[in-house]
Design a protein that fits this description.
Blueprint: E1 4-5, E2 10-11, E3 24-25, E4 34-35, E5 40-42, E6 56-58, E7 67-73, E8 82-89, E9 94-101, E10 112-116, H1 125-132, E11 135-137, E12 147-149, E13 159-163, E14 173-174, H2 183-200, E15 209-214, H3 217-237, E16 245-251, H4 260-269, H5 281-303, H6 308-322, H7 324-329, E17 331-332, E18 335-339, H8 348-357, H9 360-366, H10 379-387, H11 390-393, H12 396-405, E19 409-415, H13 423-432, H14 438-443, E20 447-451, E21 454-462, E22 465-470, H15 477-480, H16 482-493
Parallel strand pairs: 5-6, 10-13, 10-15, 15-16, 16-19, 19-22
Antiparallel strand pairs: 1-2, 3-4, 6-7, 7-8, 8-9, 9-13, 9-14, 11-12, 17-18, 20-21, 21-22
Helix pairs in contact: 2-3, 3-12, 4-5, 4-13, 5-6
Length: 498
């Protein structure tokens, strides 16, 4: 999910004691090891040995500043083993919360997938309880535990993590108000989390790993995956097994900022989303006139060289001329076919998710620190990333090209009803992507793809790159089109054609 803030132009997923985040040193000096009350200490384990009564504390000598606390949980999906916990980073100063669900098919053989939501600053619990998780929030109050079974969960055939990152998001927190305010900074913690998991649990060593997410994940995931690839080389040199990163899956992402406004124009004033444009002709004419100046300003001040002051001015002009009319229309920026609800990220469900996860019984079930309330989307985290011009600092499409050159598969999908990170903008940057398969992709043909005999969208591919549209879906494709999104991911994991 992406953060909508017109004034920023930012784009936007057994309880220990109340002092569980306080560490007591077993010895003095730089090499002292932190001990967490109520935690079982282990340097290696089998995941099935983790229990539900207390956290198991896991560590690895390659990551001396990181510890993982993990416990078994009965949360969400009773048909599989589920786990929750924290990655404690920077010697216990920061704590990143995660949910992990084993595959419904064959957890001993199936791939591993990580899902993150965007923002920057939104919790992956939204993806878990609204989109692709094994359970969904019970809106009709028909269940005894507040959730209902999701038959289209992505853990149907993959072991799936939902990670709240960076700190300050979801149940993740910092002890001393430390923050992570850049994607590159966040990448280090994500890499440590993934490495510690695979290095600690031998049953998952060598499994294929897929990084997936939506919205600001279009900035996050290319950088995260690139950092993992680079660190894999270091791991090999040190005699450690590298993470078997196999693919990156980005839904309605923000990746190349230069294509954003041309795409929005086509959604509002063309037929890219609706058969008849909904915007007034006078507004469309004004937008058409302003669009070349907008694109030129972004190219000169944000892309060719980053001049933060002039880049901010460029986006301010583009928003004033090309976004104001949409914001004033009352339409949902994440789904042009609906109006915006006065709730978090235009969705009442996000407010209900917070209420559900802040329930004492659910917090106890998850094992979260009772001192910290759940945060759906953190305003402070979003401001921190914006203060560093994180979205504009690095053209993330270059990371995507570099990943393809290193044999990492990339799936870009987009719902056609999204305005915020629309499918046209994504199509434009994928068409322009500078990689060795560019010519092959240019001549490849579009074709329809189907689920249960019905057209789901269009797709195009060349080599390791595939682009997919999902017709009638908004920003959160797994929420709007669950069967289609699950089929798409299933075929992707199996290396099947759509």
């Amino acid at each position: 999910m992406l953060w909508t803030a017109p004034i920023w132009s930012l784009l936007t997923g057994g309880v220990l004691g109340h002092n569980q985040h306080v560490f007591t040193l077993a010895s003095t000096g730089a090499d002292a090891s932190p001990i967490i009350p109520g935690a079982n200490l282990a340097t290696a384990a089998n995941l099935s040995a983790v229990n539900a009564d207390a956290y198991s504390l896991l560590m690895h000598p390659s990551f001396p500043g990181h510890r993982m606390r993990i416990k078994k949980s009965a949360f969400c999906d009773p048909t599989v083993n589920a786990y929750t916990g924290y990655l404690d980073v920077d010697y216990g100063a920061k704590h990143m919360f995660f949910y992990f669900f084993e595959s419904r098919r064959d957890p001993t053989k199936d791939d591993v997938m990580m899902w993150i939501n965007g923002g920057p600053g939104c919790s992956s619990a939204s993806g878990l309880l609204m989109e692709l998780g094994p359970c969904s929030l019970d809106l009709e109050e028909i269940s005894s535990n507040g959730t209902v079974w999701n038959p289209y969960s992505w853990n149907t055939e993959a072991n799936v993590f939902f990670l709240d990152q960076p700190v300050g998001v979801g149940f993740s927190y910092a002890d001393y108000e430390e923050t992570v305010e850049t994607t590159e900074g966040a990448a280090k913690n994500v890499h440590a989390f993934i490495s510690l998991f695979f290095d600690t649990f031998p049953e998952f060593v060598g499994r294929r790993l897929h990084l997936s997410g939506e919205s600001y994940a279009g900035r996050y995931l290319p950088a995260f995956a690139s950092y993992i690839v680079d660190q894999n080389e270091l791991a090999v040199a040190q005699g450690r097994r590298p993470a078997n990163l196999t693919s990156v899956i980005i839904g309605n992402g923000i990746t190349d900022i230069s294509t954003l406004y041309p795409g929005r124009y086509e959604v509002e004033c063309g037929t890219a989303a609706l058969e008849v444009p909904f915007q007034k002709i006078s507004t469309c004419v004004r937008m058409k006139i302003a669009l070349p100046r907008c694109q030129d300003a972004i190219k000169r001040n944000c892309v060719e060289q980053l001049d933060m002051m002039n880049c901010d001015a460029a986006f301010s002009f583009c928003d004033a001329e090309l976004s104001t009319a949409y914001w004033e229309s009352g339409r949902n920026v994440y789904d042009i076919s609906t109006t915006c609800e006065e709730n978090v990220m235009c969705s009442k469900k996000n407010t209900l998710i917070k209420e559900y996860l802040d329930r004492p019984d659910i917090r106890q079930l998850l094992g979260v620190d009772p001192l910290f309330n759940f945060t759906v989307c953190s305003h402070d985290v979003g401001l921190g990333f914006h203060s560093h011009s994180d979205m504009r600092r690095v053209p993330s499409q270059h990371h995507v090209a570099a990943l393809l050159e290193r044999s990492i598969r990339v799936l870009i999908y987009a719902g056609t009803y999204d305005w915020q990170c629309n499918w046209v903008a994504n199509k434009l940057w994928v068409d322009n992507l500078d990689w060795t398969g560019k010519a092959a992709y240019a001549v490849a043909e579009w074709h329809d793809w189907h689920v249960d005999g019905k057209k789901a969208g269009e797709t195009k591919s060349a080599g390791l790159l595939r682009f997919v549209t999902v017709r009638g879906a908004g920003h959160m494709v797994p929420h709007d089109k669950p069967a289609e999104s699950q089929a798409m991911v299933s075929r992707w994991l199996a290396h099947q054609e759509l």
